[in-house]
Design a protein that fits this description.
Helix content: 40-55%
CATH superfamily: Bacterial extracellular solute-binding protein, family 7
Strand content: 15-25%
Largest sheet: 9 strands, mixed
CATH class: Alpha Beta
Structural class: alpha/beta
Number of strands: 9
Number of helices: 14
Number of domains: 1
Length: 325
């Protein structure tokens, strides 16, 4: 009896000392992102994890998986649609497969910076898209205010106009709005998972990539490219999207916790991203990158037809009006 009691106390002491929770959470959500832990947006994910734990009194545990550890975004979305307790940080272009309106968020030169686009993704218009996504694809948006900065061109040669991109194989996500934008800029759109970009550049499978500064730095693209051209062609706003079936199975109060904490954490990550951009640019220069300013208007004119080609002309005007309020 004495031996049994001593053993029990020893095990309890070990659990407490090692930080292993004594009581498991009622629900666990695994969040996948292509970003590295060094990305400022990842601080927002850590804030989400900690905020949910506190606001739910430990009923929900958030597990973070950087560097696409759970697989490509598209695969994780399909897991979520099947009811798995997973979430992914994903752009609107990929969600347009299910609800077309989301695609406009990834269209070229829609808005500048974070504050304007934040008005769009917290608007009544956007909440209508959220409902459609839940109904038609069994996917639930927790929040869509995860701003990653403007997308720039990472190449091995100097780029001044769209003509300089002719024939270059440029990696981009496989969504139509991204593919059409890259093609309109003059390059050959080449879809592939972001996790494969470094090796593809290294092995000359592709010639260039378009990506925001934090992601490019985190993936060490400065080791396999020489020039960063600041076209700012896409203002990258992304969202945290989970399983509609899993979300609907939660108590109502926990659903509120997830959406409120996701919105708060999105701001943490987005403003952190904004505040980091100048420093990242200086670090890229120090690493040997040539950072070039160009006439953005020529790229804006080259990509203007993307909206009408994808049927977003009228929606563009509505979204831009909300962003400008």
């Amino acid at each position: 009896m004495k031996h049994t009691l001593t053993s029990a106390l020893f095990v309890a002491g070990f659990v407490i000392a090692s930080g292993i929770p004594v009581f498991a959470a009622d629900h666990t959500l695994s969040v996948n992102t292509a970003l590295a832990t060094s990305d400022p947006l990842y601080k927002g994910l850590e804030s989400f994890r900690d905020g949910v734990a506190a606001a739910s009194d430990g009923k929900i545990e958030i597990k973070l998986f950087p560097n696409s550890q759970l697989g490509p975004d598209e695969d994780v979305l399909e897991q979520a649609r099947a009811g798995a307790p997973v979430a992914v940080i994903v752009d609107g272009g990929r969600l347009a497969t299910y609800v077309n309106e989301f695609g406009v968020l990834g269209a070229p030169y829609l808005a500048n910076g974070y504050d304007g686009i934040r008005k769009v993704v917290t608007s009544d218009l956007f909440e209508g898209w959220v409902g459609k996504l839940q109904d038609e694809a069994q996917l639930q948006v927790l929040s869509f205010n995860w701003w990653q900065g403007e997308r720039q061109l990472w190449t091995r040669k100097s780029i001044a106009t769209p003509d300089d991109l002719a024939g270059l194989r440029m990696r981009t996500p496989g969504a139509p709005v991204w593919m059409e934008t890259v093609a309109a800029m003059g390059a050959v759109a080449t879809p592939m998972p972001f996790a494969d970009v470094y090796s593809a550049l290294q092995q000359h499978v592709i010639d260039a990539v378009e990506a925001q500064l934090p992601a490019g730095q985190g993936s060490k693209l400065f080791e396999v490219t020489d020039h960063l051209t600041k076209t700012a062609h896409i203002n990258l706003i992304t969202g945290m999207v989970t399983s509609g079936e899993w979300f609907d199975g939660l108590p109502a109060e926990l659903q509120v916790v997830l959406r409120e904490e996701a919105l708060k954490a999105g701001d943490v990550g987005s403003y952190g991203t904004r505040d980091s951009l100048a420093q990242i640019e200086e670090e890229l220069k120090a690493a040997g990158m040539t950072v070039e300013e160009v006439d953005v208007d020529v790229f804006r004119k080259a990509t203007a037809g993307v909206y009408d080609k994808l049927g977003y002309g009228e929606l563009r005007d509505t979204v831009q009006a909300i962003a400008a309020q």
